[in-house]
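tokens incoming
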């Protein structure tokens, strides 16, 4: 709490921006979390007493919504199933200066919340809670491996990435939230959140945070192989949409290479005999080369379209005024760098 107070000192209630404390919203997506949600709300209210806590219930069949209301949270219902649909609704409906999103399963450390919010106050657009010191039962080896693999894939495609790309504990600036075009419907939303920041080259950071096991009686909604495959498909889709020239160039090169390999024996036979005895193969070579040229042309056209979309997203981002950095926040950055 002391770090948060230093980054955002109290100020009188006046209208000029930067003279009042930032409005902080804690966003909690939930599906059947009656065992944990009451404690999550209480812990985050203790760590961020001035924040509004919003619970978005995603068709829970238990008492999640009722418990959240009794705990004092603002509860909304999201009828479309899936975490991605919930995130889209949260970002659209909640108005604040700074946003903190956390899963409602009581696995993330609420004590790290002031540090995440303080880093946002230094001018960052997204801060990711990097999971560490976790129990083996909480963060299984298969999930660790899948996270690292997918994180490396995004790094190869977009040039830089995070250490824990799939963390469900994140802080966002208003600029980020109101410029984020959510498309994913499920747990692949974390991949989109990371790619959006990398695309616009936003200032981002990670803050280490403990990660524990779910409370006894609650059940994980993750399906290791299904969700991992879905995230991988999302990465391929984002590659096609955001790096179309590279994506279609790979297909064009493969078609051209296969066409040349198949054509070599035909050319040798033609040079020796003056005949082309295998017309189906010759037709296939020509078709593959034409297909390669078509793919290359499609990549060039879509690359131009993508640059236009990216410029529009950047203009939308710039149209939202940033939260003014406090002098204390800048000093804390310098102090942290000097310690490093």
């Amino acid at each position: 709490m002391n770090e948060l107070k230093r980054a955002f000192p109290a100020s009188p209630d006046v209208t000029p921006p930067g003279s009042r404390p930032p409005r902080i919203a804690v966003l909690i997506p939930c599906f059947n979390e009656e065992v944990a949600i009451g404690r999550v709300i209480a812990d985050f209210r203790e760590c961020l007493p001035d924040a509004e806590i919003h619970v978005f219930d995603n068709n829970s069949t238990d008492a999640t919504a009722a418990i959240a209301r009794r705990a004092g949270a603002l509860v909304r219902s999201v009828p479309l199933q899936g975490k991605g649909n919930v995130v889209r609704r949260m970002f659209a409906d909640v108005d604040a200066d700074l946003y903190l999103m956390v899963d409602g399963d009581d696995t993330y450390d609420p004590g790290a919340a002031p540090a995440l919010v303080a880093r946002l106050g230094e001018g960052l657009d997204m801060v990711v809670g990097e999971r560490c010191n976790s129990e083996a039962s909480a963060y299984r080896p298969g999930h660790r491996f899948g996270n690292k693999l997918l994180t490396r894939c995004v790094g190869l495609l977009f040039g830089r990435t995070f250490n824990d790309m799939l963390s469900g504990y994140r802080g966002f600036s208003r600029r980020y939230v109101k410029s984020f075009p959510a498309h994913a419907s499920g747990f692949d939303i974390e991949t989109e959140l990371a790619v959006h920041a990398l695309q616009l080259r936003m200032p981002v950071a990670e803050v280490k945070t403990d990660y524990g096991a779910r409370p006894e009686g609650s059940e994980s909604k993750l399906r290791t192989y299904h969700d991992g495959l879905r995230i991988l498909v999302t990465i391929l889709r984002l590659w096609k949409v955001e790096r179309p020239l590279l994506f279609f160039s790979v297909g064009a090169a493969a078609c051209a290479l296969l066409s040349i390999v198949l054509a070599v024996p035909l050319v040798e036979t033609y040079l020796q005999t003056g005949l082309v005895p295998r017309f189906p193969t010759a037709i296939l070579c020509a078709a593959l080369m034409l297909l390669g040229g078509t793919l290359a042309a499609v990549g060039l056209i879509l690359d131009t379209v993508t640059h236009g979309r990216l410029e529009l997203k950047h203009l939308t981002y710039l149209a939202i005024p940033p939260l003014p950095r406090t002098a204390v926040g800048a000093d804390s950055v310098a102090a942290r760098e000097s310690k490093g």
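note: The beta strands are 24-30, 52-57, 74-77, 98-101, 126-132, 170-173, 204-210.
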